Amino acid sequence: xxxxxxxxxxxxxxxxxxxxxxxxxxxxxxxxxxxxxxxxxxxxxxxxxxxxxxxxxxxxxxxxxxxxxxxxxxxxxxxxxxxxxxxxxxxxxxxx
Length: 96
Fold this sequence. Notes:
Elements: E1 5-11, H1 15-25, E2 31-36, E3 43-51, H2 53-65, E4 71-77, H3 83-95
Antiparallel strand pairs: 1-3, 1-4, 2-3
């Protein structure tokens, strides 16, 4: 079974607001990177998150509804590995 997710990258000056939404409303994690625009040479923060298609749709709705100016890319990821993923599988197996 494939663990399909969206890898979402967001560059915005409102990164803290988006980060709080991802953590508090979507209950997902994210990673922050310091980035420099190749064209503008401006320093900014890039958020990266792995989201389900439904979570991605909710995030886009939040960004659009709140008029957040952002540069966003999203790509499909077919496999995700890590200790957090293992724990969620173990919880699922114990519940069955």
